[in-house]
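Margin note: ligand = S-adenosyl-L-homocysteine.
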Amino acid sequence: MDAMQHYPVFLNTRAARIVLSGGSEAALAKLRLLMKTEANLHVFAPDAAPEIISWANAGALTLHRRALKAEDVAGAALVYAADEDEARDSQTATLAHSARVLLNIVDNLEGSDFITPAIVDRDPVTIAIGTEGAAPVLARQIKADLEARLPSSLGALARIGKAFRHAADTLPMGRVRRAFWTEYYTQTGPASISKGEAATKAALNTLLAQHLAEAQAEGHVIFAGAGPGDPELLTLKARRALHEADVVIYDRLVSPAILELARREALMLSAGKEGFGAAMSQADINALIVKHASAGAQVLRLKGGDPAVFARLDEEIEACEARGIAFSIVPGITAASASAAALGQSLTKRGRNTEARLVTGHDMQGYADQDWKSLARAGEVAAIYMGKRAARFIQGRLLMHGAAANTPVSLVENASLPNQRIVATTLGQLPSALAEAALTGPALTLLGLAPRDAVTPTLKQEVAQ
Ligand code: SAH
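Resulting structure:
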């Protein structure tokens, strides 16, 4: 493709000064269009056609009955040389160039800085047609075609549409909003404009209500954290999501007291990976979420604690993304926070540890390989999720890397719930303490933290001195 010699722009003419030299046919043709703008028009013509005189009398332009001078051009946005006289036009050109103002010489493409395109005017819709001067006839033909094809009501439709933009912004961005405007410009608008502007505005309101209702009918997934179990540790957002969801897909860790908060009509589905029912694979859970959201449901995927901590959130999000399903995430209080609170301790403390790690005791491949060496240092704090089964393995790794046998270790079972239990022990005693406690609920292992004195543990194994 050839480079564009003439680059189309729409010039802001408000308060701009536009100067035209000439007073006959060519000047009249240019002025008819220029008078539609907001510019201050100055026409210089010792002999002006009667039309120009009457436009001047009507205040549509300022007529100066003399030839153009240098000071007339200064500060102008555009200059037109429309005298149809080579000598006069070249004088105008010289004045324009020395004042560095963009110049158009009528019917002289090469001598002009800019050209005025053929225009189809459906204010505020303006279509400019340019052929780089190559085919003025073609430009006129295209203009005639467009004039015939575009209803004269198009301008009114666009004006009404523009005034309605703010209201339409209540629709979700993107596809939904585009569909609304397409329907307005291709169907609702043209059908109602003949009945007047008021009818068109009313039709636009009805159309918006329809599209808003449809947008709400689109499926959506909220991944929310249910917190550690106490319903009072739910966020207000999670609580509202429970109240509004059509389908709730919940994990085994979510307590019954929290599920009570869902609407009665909501479909409650357990995705529990343990317990009585058959284990549900991650792929099955993904499919379940996608199935309900695709059918238009507001799906709440409720996970224990925080949905972004050891909860396979990304796999479920990716399943939604693959199907173009909108989703949002509502964080929750993770078990580490609730367990530290149960001990009356901080997860970080000045002078003790400036970092606290969230680690998992085992992952899908088996016992997780952490940076046990760095965790073996005195003062380290780690919240070990899913750590019960891996206790002996973790103990072995930490002792091997030089951790002290009397490093405090606390286990918090059912943190935040009425049946919460705290096992206070040490790294050296960890496996025997676990065996003795026989924990059955979810438990978090806090390495490096002992319960504050004010907190009485359920089970306490003293360090063998
Ligand atoms: N997303 C969850 C963690 C899921 S992994 C969160 O942010 O808390 C599951 C592990 O979390 C359990 O094995 C247990 O170690 C821990 N856990 C979850 N809820 C708990 C609770 N109420 N008390 C103690 N530990 C809990």
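Residues 228-229, 253, 303-306, 309-311, 334-335, 338-339, 385-386, 412, 414-416, 442-444 surround S-adenosyl-L-homocysteine (CB under 6 Å).
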